Amino acid sequence: MSSKNKSLEIETLRGLACLLLVLYHVIGPLGGGLKIDLGSPFRVIADSMVYVRMPLFTFISGYIYSIYKIRGNDFSAFFTGKVRRLIVPLFCVGVPFSVLQAVGPGVNKDVGVIDALLSFYVPVNHFWFLQAVFIIFMFVGLLEWRGLLRSATRLYLLFAFAALVFLLPPFKVDAFGINGATYLLPFFVAGMIGQEKVDTLRHFLKVIGPWVFVMISLALLYVAAKDRELIVDRRSLVGLTVGCVSCFALLSSDMRSKWLTWLGGYSYAIFLFHVLFAATSRFVLGRLGVHEDAVLVLGGVVLGLLGPVLLSMLFSRFNFTSVLFLGERAAVKKTAAKVAPVAQV
Predict the structure, then answer these.
(1) What is the separation, in whole angstroms, between the first and last Cα of the chain?
(2) pLDDT in tens, 202-215
(3) pTM here?
(4) Contact assessment for residue 69 and residue 252, using Cβ atoms and an 8 Å cutoff
(5) pLDDT, tens digit (0-9, with 9 covering 90-100), for 122-156
(6) Which contacts qualify for 161-167: CB closer than 8 Å, 24 or more apart?
(7) 10-29 pLDDT, tens per residue?
(8) Which of 27, 156, 192, 321 could form an SS bridge with 315, CB 3.0 to 4.6 Å?
(9) What CA–CA distance (Å, rounded) separates 49 from 27?
(10) What is the torsional sign of CA 288, 292, 50, 212?
(11) Nearest to 54 by CA among 278, 326, 247
């Protein structure tokens, strides 16, 4: 899970996305998480992140895809890899988590057992992201495979299509996370465009990029504090514009942080397991009589970030757990590699 061979600035953004995601789920939506009421600074923070949090995660996915995008006639291998990486953890982590939430005591979200068992089809938790991104990978991968994205003009046309779909009303039934896919698609394509134009962006926006993001963040905080109803609608032209501009501003800043880079190396495990550890922190601190919001938020964020890292280190030691719970490739034994080196060529 080390990120030492990866782009430090992209891993830094991954770490930032992890921090924003965990912070939001610790605070929770209105009535969820720590059940923090309106007027609290933590409620304002949670609401203000809505235009940046998941768009940034998806923007990074599109950026990375654009580097290692499908080439030639290897769509079957591409499909198999995405099933292993996204769908296997959906069944092995997402569905059991939803079932645990349905039968476990003291949870904030009321989830029926049947809904939990069918959560691979109609998502009920944050695992909707896995389904949504899988659809996006298949859609964009097919276009790439058929040679339909070989020019910048076609990529911009794809972004225009994604923006149009983003602004349309969602489907009545969120089958396999299709509404999440239409929500995230423009940010994924924006990430692809960002990778293609990264040098230009950093040349012209490196100085002002961080200031743009700071100004956007301050504006979102102000709006969330004044009237949260103006900011919680993600599927809007404002949400699309703010999300894309924020992602491009962060990318152009070429920001690097050692501890965010380290977190970024474990971003997938943090995404999968952070809610479990955040809920554990809330339960334990509550049992200890801790009721201060600041302590509960800090404890939830720390455990929500570090717990999945430790779990990832444990799961990665064994092929069985690393494949099922992290979607990683099964490691090839070194002895076998020495016996048959020609077979790997």
Answers:
(1) 25
(2) 888 888 988 999 99
(3) 0.90
(4) no
(5) 888 899 999 999 999 999 999 999 889 989 999 99
(6) 162/186, 162/188, 162/189, 163/240, 166/235, 166/240, 167/235, 167/236, 167/237, 167/240
(7) 999 999 999 999 999 999 88
(8) 321
(9) 11
(10) negative
(11) 247
Give the number of residues written for the chain: 345
Per-residue pLDDT of 199-247, as tens digits, reads 888 888 888 988 999 999 999 999 988 888 888 778 999 999 999 999 9
CA distance 181 to 158: 14
Residue 131 token pair: 């389904």
Give the Cα separation of 213 and 210 in Å (integer): 5
